[in-house]
Specification:
381 residues; alpha+beta; 6-stranded antiparallel sheet; 4-stranded mixed sheet; 12 helices; 10 strands; disordered N terminus
Length: 381
């Protein structure tokens, strides 16, 4: 007599793309709930919000995360900011729990560096000086940038902007977890996500005698106790201001002492000695990426406007408007003289950026070119 067979599970006919869109919409709506803080049981909503983000990161569901951000971007700036900050934090920082052991934390940090050289850098010549690398790694603790008890690893590769921008939320999270295993275990382990991130620099367009300026990122991972007092920000506005001021002082001192080591990691011999380095501030991965991208755009704008002013030979004014470039929001700056447009340049603008602060930064930058009249032309809400 034949046995009764268990019915086969019904297959879903919903296309994967549609499922991802539904999940993205749900996450975007949850971000709006968390941002508005209007319910009594907010702790439950916040816990679910964090849990969903962590799950999508672990499952490498980047389409869901980026889709949710795209929806939030057009629906509510507060929800967008809440969602972006939460995704970036969880992608780049992982808490590790072990039985009968203190809670550990590991995060990904980066340092943007503008490198001035003759002829440009060669990837094949970078990170060939092992002594310089070891001394540079040790300098993060001795220079007061990281805790003396933290374990650090610095990727032996200087990332260009395209490589940094290609690292997705899910990939960065996987890289952080690979680094955690490496720093908490003496065994040699494979790191496929990290290896994929090193795609190689874009081809150089500099000739041997050209004065070159290139943006590179030093990428590292810091593994420490979650309750390490070194990283604790004190309560109180004045105490916090003092904390960050002291950290900035240490960082500035570090850049002066570490610059020769960084140069030896980026080039060999006489080439290394001839490099000039300008460091931006050390930050978590996405903060450092945004710093580098924005500063690069500003420098390109300044060079372009400087050339236009020299050709024009007279006074000019600037008008700042909002625009889109490749689907992303930008500040578009037009350089005008009379009724003539001399030049135009775009600077990236995050959807949740402080518009007034961004325009003030542009005013400060343009004032160094002698441009004192900077008008903002935005439609009123």
């Amino acid at each position: 007599m034949p046995k009764n067979k268990k019915p086969a599970p019904r297959k879903s006919h919903t296309p994967p793309a549609e499922k991802e869109e539904v999940l993205s919409q749900a996450l975007s709506e949850l971000a709006l709930t968390v941002a508005e803080q209007e319910y009594e049981d907010m702790a439950e909503h916040e816990l679910e919000f964090s849990r969903q983000i962590r799950r999508y990161l672990n499952q490498q569901k980047n389409e869901v995360l980026y889709g949710a951000l795209e929806q939030a971007r057009f629906e509510d700036s507060g929800a967008y900011r809440t969602l972006r900050e939460a995704i970036e934090e969880q992608a780049g920082t992982v808490l590790l729990h072990r039985e009968n052991a203190p809670e550990m934390e590991i995060n990904a940090f980066a340092i943007p560096v503008f490198v001035h050289s003759q002829g440009g850098l060669s990837q094949a010549d970078s990170f060939q000086d092992e002594a310089a690398y070891e001394a540079l790694l040790a300098s993060f603790a001795s220079g007061g940038l990281e805790s003396p008890t933290a374990k650090l690893v610095l990727v032996q590769h200087a990332y260009d902007l395209a490589e940094m921008e290609a690292i997705t939320y899910g990939q960065l999270n996987a890289m952080v977890r690979e680094a955690a295993l490496s720093l908490s275990d003496r065994k040699v382990r494979e790191a496929p996500a990290l290896q994929r991130s090193i795609a190689g620099w874009r081809p150089s367009t500099f000739g041997a005698g050209d004065e070159a300026m290139e943006l590179r990122f030093l990428l590292g991972f810091a593994y420490k106790r979650a309750d390490d007092a070194f990283y604790r920000i004190p309560p109180g506005e004045q105490a916090q201001d003092d904390y960050w001021a002291q950290r900035m002082e240490r960082y500035q001192a570090w850049t002066a002492s570490a610059a020769p080591l960084v140069a030896r990691c980026l080039a060999r011999g006489d080439k290394a000695a001839g490099l000039r380095l300008n460091f931006l501030y050390q930050d978590l991965f996405f903060g450092a990426l945004q710093q580098g991208r924005s500063e690069l755009a500003t420098l390109a704008m300044m060079a372009q406007f400087g050339d236009a002013l020299r050709s024009h030979g007279g006074e000019a004014r600037a008008v700042v408007t909002g625009a889109e470039q490749d689907g992303e929001a930008v500040l578009r700056v037009q350089l005008l003289a009379g009724g003539q447009a001399l030049a135009s340049a775009d600077r990236p603008l995050a959807p949740d950026a402080d518009l007034e602060a961004e325009i003030d930064d542009l005013r400060d930058a343009l004032s160094t070119l002698g441009i004192s009249e900077v008008a903002a032309d935005f439609p009123s809400n």
